[in-house]
Design brief:
Blueprint: H1 3-27, H2 31-43, H3 55-72, H4 76-81, H5 83-108, H6 114-124, H7 131-139, H8 143-170, H9 177-207, H10 212-232, H11 237-255, H12 258-285, H13 287-296, H14 301-353, H15 355-358, H16 363-382, H17 387-395, H18 401-408, H19 417-446, H20 453-476, H21 491-503, H22 521-542, H23 547-563
Helix pairs in contact: 2-12, 2-19, 3-10, 3-11, 3-12, 3-18, 5-6, 5-8, 5-14, 6-8, 7-8, 7-19, 8-9, 8-11, 9-10, 9-11, 10-11, 10-12, 13-19, 14-16, 14-17, 14-19, 18-19, 20-22, 20-23, 22-23
């Protein structure tokens, strides 16, 4: 295409994405599914030009920012709490699915080696990171289910792509299990280190820049700074990006300013909307191109379709076989967590009543650790992973554009390559439209509901009260409170701050440069806001409240700070 044609296509694509996003709410259909169907319809229009997209563009230019934007918003506490389940789904399930589908394809296609078949299995194994969570959020799934599905989507691409690379390399030489295991461990270890270092450095650098536009610009390159070195060292660039995002999300809320986080959130939301929906539209547009490729080399399109359907069935059965023991194990541990919570509660009571222990220098750290353990136990006890939630997880195996891009990255000398790419497309299409389209019905039939709104409201109010009380105790009631120049705050300023703290007024205070007393108010409010942030960080570190409650409290405090409201 000429430059002018590309510009026209880009403008139309953005308008289609916006229109589909608006229409999906009225139609009750997830935006990714609607865009795939729109793309399929457009691809069937006579005279539609051939759509050829280099797979490297998706895997190296689109996937890193998509995963980073999702990882930044992932509560690290929730990710840690469900790490066992996420690991089972994103590592164990991907490995078993790759092996199972590989054996199936090895049996169907006689000229396909076992290593090559496993490589194709790795292509179709990871569910999409967007489709399930977009449906779940729209229908109000419980936060724990959303965390598990989103966490699986963040990590499983890394597992699949590392396995794909290993399997493709094995097709060119002798395969060694221990060599493959060592390569996998190396790829994971190096990715963890690079991602953590990049995330910490990015937050540190951005915290020293006081211009939101500049810090947001830096955040746009962080995914690639994490991805490229890992890939050059033959590690998992995708996993490195996810780790960098998790570290940035955890550290940024403490070290980045409210303005920086607000600007970044707005800009990344727009980027994420265009990228993730654009790739689904692109996926639908590629249908005719894939069918033509299969026909051109004399292979059967019908064979690709029925093999793709067989692979979908195999993937569903393998996923079910893994989800059942995961749910059973979680249910079995629920009573243990109740006992653990009660036991830690008794220990904390004994510690608080022992005057000798109160004087021990290590007590604050030990108490924080115990409160965190108690909060974790309460979370597991009150948010059990039941069979209804397990059914949703088992049915949320929708594949997406990463599957198609990974398939197109297979070497050109692969036997049945064009047919295998079409099989991957069939798997992605059937799971996305079939399972994704019926997932809302399944959720309604099972009667699954999200968080208790009244309980969440009470928790939010309690958390905000604790944060406000901590600010009053540390600042307004502090006898050693002083201004930056060492002087004291005027009594009327302290009185006004207390009144504003109680009323949570919405009108921002106006600074009057001609009134030296009123000019002290912004300085005092800054100290109060800092104390509130410290108290919220303490609540976050001990995990005493659900992460979505803490996120709402953080958002409210940020909004007040941006407006200049009194805390």
């Amino acid at each position: 295409m000429h430059l002018e044609q590309l510009e026209i296509v880009g403008v139309i694509a953005v308008l289609v994405i916006v229109a589909a996003s608006l229409a999906s709410r009225r139609l009750g259909l997830a935006t990714p599914i609607l865009l795939v169907l729109v793309g399929l319809g457009v691809s069937l229009v006579p005279g539609m030009p051939r759509i050829d997209v280099p797979p490297e563009l998706i895997l190296t230019a689109v996937l890193p920012p998509l995963l980073y934007s999702a990882a930044v918003n992932m509560p690290v506490v929730d990710f840690r709490r469900d790490l066992r389940t996420i690991t089972a789904l994103s590592v164990v399930l991907v490995l078993l699915s790759s092996l199972g589908v590989g054996l199936l394809l090895w049996w169907i296609f006689p000229d396909l080696s076992l290593a090559a078949a496993i490589a194709v299995g790795a292509v179709v194994s990871p569910p999409d990171a967007v489709a399930a969570t977009s449906i779940g959020k729209r229908l109000g799934l419980p936060p724990r289910l959303l965390t598990i599905l989103e966490g699986e989507g963040l990590v499983n691409d890394a597992t699949a792509l590392v396995l794909l690379r290993t399997a493709v390399a094995a097709t060119a030489g002798a395969f060694s299990f221990w060599r493959a295991a060592a390569d996998f461990a190396y790829a994971v270890a190096i990715a963890l280190v690079i991602g953590a270092v990049v995330g910490m450095l990015a937050v540190r650098i951005r915290s020293r820049i006081d211009q939101p536009a500049l810090t947001t610009a830096i955040s746009f390159v962080v995914p690639f700074v994490a991805f490229l070195p890992a890939e050059l060292l033959h590690a998992s660039g995708v996993l490195s990006v996810v780790v960098a995002g998790l570290v940035t999300g955890a550290a940024g809320v403490r070290r980045l300013s409210v303005q920086d986080r607000s600007a970044e959130r707005t800009n990344w939301t727009t980027v994420q909307l265009l990228l993730e929906n654009g790739v689904f539209l692109l996926m639908g547009l590629q249908l005719v191109t894939l069918v033509d490729d299969v026909a051109d080399v004399g292979l059967s399109v019908l064979t690709a379709v029925w093999v793709g359907l067989l692979v979908v069935l195999a993937l569903a059965l393998i996923r079910l076989a893994v989800v059942v023991p995961v749910v059973h194990s979680a249910r079995r541990r629920q009573d243990d967590h109740r006992h653990t919570e009660a036991k830690i509660g008794r220990i904390l009571e004994q510690v608080s009543s022992d005057e000798r222990l109160q004087q021990h220098p290590a007590l604050p750290k030990a108490e924080r650790w115990l409160r965190r353990r108690r909060a974790d136990a309460r979370f597991y006890a009150e948010n059990g992973l039941g069979w209804r939630g397990g059914a949703v997880i088992a049915w949320s195996g929708m594949r997406g554009v990463v599957t198609l891009a990974a398939a197109q990255s297979l070497p050109t000398d692969f036997p049945y390559r064009t047919q295998l790419v079409l099989i991957a497309f069939v798997v992605a299409l059937v799971t996305l439209v079939g399972q994704g389209g019926t997932l809302p019905l399944l959720i309604r039939l099972l009667g699954i509901r999200g968080s208790d709104a009244e309980r969440e409201r009470r928790e939010l109010q309690l958390l905000l009260s604790e944060v406000g009380e901590a600010a009053v105790a540390q600042v307004l009631d502090n006898p050693s409170l002083r201004r930056r120049d060492g002087g004291e705050f005027a009594p009327e300023v302290l009185h006004a701050a207390r009144a504003w703290q109680e009323r949570m007024r919405q009108d921002p205070p106006r600074e009057d440069e001609g009134d030296p007393v009123r000019a002290q108010m912004p300085e005092l409010l800054t100290l109060v806001q800092e104390a509130q942030r410290d108290a919220l960080d303490e609540a976050r570190s001990t995990a005493a409240y659900d992460s979505h409650v803490i996120a709402r409290a953080q958002k409210l405090l940020d909004q007040r700070a941006l407006r200049g409201d009194a805390p």
